[in-house]
Amino acid sequence: MEEKTLPALLLRNKDKYGPGKVAMREKEFGIWQDYTWQDYYEHVKHFALGLWTLGFRKGDKLAIIGDNRPEWVWAEVAAQSLGGAPLGIYQDSILTEVAYVIDHSDAKFVVAEDQEQADKILDMKEDLPKVAKVVYTDPKGMRNYDDPLLVFFSEVEESGRRFEAENPGFFESRIAEIDEEDVALIAYTSGTTGSPKGSLLTHHNMLSMARNLNEVDRKFENDEFVSFLPLPWIGEQMMGVASSLAIGFTINFPEEPETAASDTYEIGPNVMFSPPRVWEGLSRTVMVKHLDASWLKRAIYQACMPIGYRIADFKFDKQPVPWGWKILYLLAWLLLFRALRDRLGFSGIRSATTGGAALGPDVFRFFHALGVNLKQIYGQTEISGISCIHRDGDINANSVGLPIPETDLRIDKPDPEGVGEIISRSPALFVGYYKNDEATRETIGDGWLHSGDAGYIDANGHLVCIDRVKDLMHMRDGRKFSPMFIENRLKFCPYIVESCVLGHERDYITAMICIDFKHTGKWAEDHRISYTTYTDLASNPQIYDLMEREVVRVNRTLPEGARIRKFLLLYKEFDPDDGELTRTRKLRRRFIAEKYAHEIEALYRDQDSVHIESEIQYQDGKKTTIVADLAIRMMKPLEAYQEEKKKWWQFWI
């Protein structure tokens, strides 16, 4: 019989694998610590019973905040085992964001990873009267804390062991009472237009999604997966919790978020699921590293990449690869791609997917050139994360693939070109928003999930997602354009970390660009350009020249009416703490339009700079005022820029 709840799957895996198979690993003090399925089960059981002794009951809410750790997953499944609903909070959330989610969710218990996260709760405890206990998992720095709210994770487990000794079989009886339609998770949305909403997802929602996805993108019980993206994100929930329980593969937790790349290299995962910012960051790193390499390595890179791109194009066009190209690619593989994939930790990768936002086609093509079979996933939190995915042998860099099994998808109210709002339904469709009936009716009132995304279905049945409906822009003459499409093109540049394209109801398109401080700074050092701060670097005329070349590169790929006419380099990066991005790194366009109204207006006036005075806050809470004159660079017609000359081997290829 197929198990219908997440805790029931844990029981199955304990009986099936027991102490003989590793369920998860955590790197601590440089050493990987193994936890078998038996260990996983024991920790969940004892923590759940310990929560019970503290007063946790069916229907209660458990908030979890911190980095990805085994204790996070144990606490989550423990709450589900008692019929409760866990919810995640991003570890870098500021106090007001943490307070909003805890209060809105009616969380009775909070699991906080360490002193930093516990302090956030204690600093606001007067505003959080519903919280009965705060459980911390890392005792470092907590020795002198005596607040009655606090209790150590291991102490809760010990209480659970004592309770089990007096009540054998109680844990299993609680699991047997859980129904597949019970809420398994409250997943808070990113909140691009306002406060996050709590999506109520049932056990049936999450498991139907995990199983249907596995039908078209196979994963196996011996696979390795590295969990380094925040667990509050629905994508990480689908892989690190639901899919791992349903399929039985091993989850690996890096020592720190900063060591994720090196830890991934050590594990060599078979499965990887990351949002575009991760893939964009990896491609930027590779491109910058090759520029800093020896002349021989640069020559090999520049000779091999065009071969990889050509093979990727054959794949996208579904054309057979001629033998000559196969031989060339084999040479490129031996000279470059094999070693490069190994350095990225992709030597064993089989299932590589991206989701959460659109990935630019240039980045997509880059990884396929390396031989990484990267696929686009499309979906929303409200449908448990996934509606569509590319199939093997049917990959289109401009689409998000085909619907997964049991998913219906169509375009609502299409215009003459077939573009309309993407709506979908499946067994994974959530039951509604927590304490927000009006938003629930607006989103799924007719049984279909209204995504708010604009798109169309192409001749091959693939879904093409253009942008958010509310973000699609039209110029003063009526021409439509997608700012996200242009932004994704810009972010393929190794020196650009983020951008915001403008032009709604204007005569032409402009952009505000945030440079990648690390990579651009390295370029400046290599070219003997001195600088002190981010603002100083971004204001340098030679950096503007560098960015102008990248804007020219993007403009060459765009129709004349959609080309960038002016741009400026901002004095800081967009930051979630400043409200410019969501915690999942999506632009909050409305907020940006208000905050940078002065700069935006200057882009549409006849001026070559704009004076700014802006207050910024550092991570330690200190504030300072930045006073600067931001240059505005006017682009010349494309004909005025000479085409970059190709190397002789590129002509030969």
How would the global form be characterised? Answer: globular
Strand % is 15-25%
Number of spatially distinct domains: 3
Mean pLDDT: 90
Q: Which consecutive residue ranges, at least 5 long each, have pLDDT under 50?
A: 645-653
CATH class of the largest domain: Alpha Beta
The side-by-side strand order for the widest beta sheet comes to: 4-3-5-6-7
Strand segment tally: 28
Largest sheet: 5 strands, parallel
Q: Can you count the helices?
A: 22
- In the CATH classification, which architecture of the largest domain applies? 3-Layer(aba) Sandwich
CATH superfamily of the largest domain: ANL, N-terminal domain
CATH topology of the largest domain: Rossmann fold
- Quaternary state of the chains: single chain
The radius of gyration over CA amounts to 26 Å
Structural class comes to: alpha/beta
Helicity level? 25-40%
